[in-house]
Automatic annotation (TrEMBL):
The gene is CCT8L2. This is T-complex protein 1 subunit theta-like 2. The keyword Cytoplasm applies. Belongs to the TCP-1 chaperonin family. It holds the Pfam family Cpn60_TCP1. Gene3D superfamilies: GroEL (3.50.7.10), GroEL-like equatorial domain (1.10.560.10), TCP-1-like chaperonin intermediate domain (3.30.260.10). Signal peptide: none annotated. GO terms for molecular function: ATP binding; ATP-dependent protein folding chaperone. The lineage of its organism: Eukaryota, Metazoa, Chordata, Craniata, Vertebrata. Its main location: cytoplasm.
């Protein structure tokens, strides 16, 4: 029996055939790898229509039954119920990209799916998995080494970052991208340190329903959606803040309770006891010098009246997420009961701010490490505000990366096409398995500008042919635009070098892991432990194994 793989000269001919025409029998390990390819391709099929500035959105029904209209890859992947381990691994890789660079999750999913698809063709052509992994690793190293040579522009230390951030934020479905980019650029520039460093935590984002996106503005300090409820509407000096995730008033039991009152005296005692409890709670807050209470819950009128007399500003918050953010910034716990915190949050001043029909509460500090500005976003719908908020965060993350490395690459698929050209030229000269692997890597890179053209509604075959011809002549600034090919330098469409390099590293890691998968082993759930007084050691030896093997068939 011949166990040798196909020789290198035979691989190009075999790769030209359809996978079904390759008659070589696949081993069990290769079949498992092909099942991983199928899972990755299925995930990429879901994400592909959302890629790029002309990507479409999806109506996403979450596990809680909430319907969300979104085109963000991170949100879609988070809501999907995945079964195949390869799909789980790919989602984890894309989340790593989102956490480290803020964007590029769709890039990771699509490129990984395309590389695994090409790996399937190489396997069917007879390339052993070990050689495939080594060849893919060499191609990834070549791509990362070549990437800095494609840099065409850098953001200057005293330059307005608007032009660099616009292409990043323009990938989101927004009606006023230019206006929002201008606000984000102003906030980033204003909070940049004198030494050129930038801390993205110094910029907050607050969403307020009402008006339009053009009514958004910058507010000093940290602003959250909420309203002052009592007569005390501001604390202008030495604010000491307590955060409560409970009603501001007497505790309400989870189970319904009925007071047993047999006489008017019992009723008076019950009322007096409630009033004494309210006075005690407010007195405890005042004794700890708490003068600002932020509440996520209902506010009792009597308790609010006592707080007014004690000079405590009571704020009713609207979002638990903002309460958690306040807890992190103020370094004080979010309390489940109306008790004073051991360490209250401190800031310089707290006051309410009216923005048209919306209300926000602003917390200001004087220390340099605290939040300096808040981008108050306005919008008519929750979905529109969610999209604007996500775009703003991506712009802030992009500026943070540019402060670390200001280099920019051609966008709109031009970088991927240029890398594909370089890999193809080198792959044709290489002997052994590296040659076909380099060509396969190049083909996977070409799938990204192809997805951009497809989502823009262009004639994909014609656009790709023209783009290929332009890059062959040495014009690597040609990318995919709304109406056809564009010069990315003239249209100011850029990709950040740090984000692109990190995305390629993440893709290389996950693909190199999946091409070496030999078998998918799933552990069965352990049965509930039951004490058996008459247990027999011989019977225990006959218990079945708790490990079950699953072979996903393609």
């Amino acid at each position: 029996m011949d166990t040798k793989g196909s020789s290198a000269p035979e691989l190009p001919q075999l790769l030209g055939q359809s996978p079904r025409r390759c008659t070589r029998a696949l081993g069990a390990g290769e079949k498992n790898m092909l099942s991983s390819t199928t899972a990755a391709q299925a995930l990429a099929t879901v994400i592909r229509p959302c890629y790029g500035p002309h990507g479409r959105q999806k109506l996403l029904v979450t596990a809680t039954g909430e319907t969300v209209c979104t085109g963000y890859t991170t949100a879609i992947l988070r809501a999907l119920e995945l079964e195949h381990p390869a799909a789980w691994l790919l989602r984890e890789a894309s989340q790593t990209q989102a956490e480290s660079r803020g964007d590029g999750t769709a890039f990771v999913v699509l490129l990984a799916g395309a590389l695994l698809e090409q790996a399937e063709l190489l396997l069917r052509a007879g390339l052993p998995r070990a050689q495939l992994r080594e060849a893919y690793a060499a191609a990834a190293t070549e791509v990362l080494a070549t990437l800095p040579s494609l840099v065409v522009r850098s953001l200057g230390p005293l330059e307005d970052p608007f032009w660099a951030l616009y292409s990043v934020m323009n990938t989101h479905t927004l009606s006023q991208t230019g206006f929002l980019t201008k606000l984000v650029a102003q906030a980033c520039w204003a909070t940049r340190e004198l030494d050129g460093s930038f801390n993205p935590e110094r910029i907050g984002v607050c969403t307020l329903r009402g008006a339009t996106l053009e009514d958004s503005c910058l507010l000093p300090g940290l602003a959250v959606a909420g309203k002052p409820c009592g007569q005390v509407t501001m604390v202008l000096r030495g604010a000491r803040v307590a955060l409560f995730a409970c009603p501001f008033g007497p505790a309400t039991p989870n189970a319904p309770a009925t007071a047993c009152l047999s006489s008017p005296d019992d009723l008076n005692k019950f009322r007096n006891g409630s009033e004494q409890l309210i006075e005690k709670q407010v007195f405890q807050l005042a004794a700890m010098s708490i003068n600002v209470a932020v509440v996520l819950g209902e506010i009792d009128e009597k308790t609010l009246s006592r707080a007014d007399r004690s000079g405590i500003m009571v704020i009713q918050a609207k979002s638990r997420r903002e309460m958690v953010y306040l807890s992190e910034v103020l370094d004080t716990p979010l309390l489940p009961h109306l008790l004073p915190p051991l360490v209250p949050g401190k800031c310089q001043r707290v006051y309410g701010q009216e923005l048209g029909e919306g209300l926000a509460v602003v917390f200001e500090w004087d220390c340099p490490s605290s939040p300096a500005l808040t981008l108050a976003l306005r919008g008519a719908t929750t979905e529109g505000l969610r999209g604007a908020e996500q775009a703003a965060y991506h712009g802030i993350d992009a500026y943070s990366q540019l402060c670390q490395d200001p280099r920019l690459l051609p966008g709109a698929g031009a970088t991927e096409m240029a890398l594909a050209k370089i890999l193809s030229e080198k792959g044709r000269k290489l002997e052994g398995p590296d040659g076909p692997a380099f060509l396969a890597f190049a083909q996977a890179l070409r799938s990204l500008p192809e997805a951009l053209a497809e989502n823009a509604g262009l004639a994909v075959a014609n656009v790709m042919a023209d783009m290929y011809g332009a890059h062959q002549t040495g014009n690597f600034l040609v990318g995919v635009g709304e109406e056809g090919l564009i010069n990315v330098a003239q249209e100011q469409v850029w990709d950040i070098l740090m984000a692109k390099a990190q995305g390629l590293r993440v893709v290389a890691d996950v693909v190199l892991q999946l091409v070496t998968v030999d078998e998918v082993v799933v552990a069965k759930k352990s049965p509930p432990q039951q004490q058996d007084l008459n247990s027999d050691s011989k019977k225990a030896k006959k218990c079945p194994s708790l490990v079950k093997k699953y072979i996903w068939k393609t």
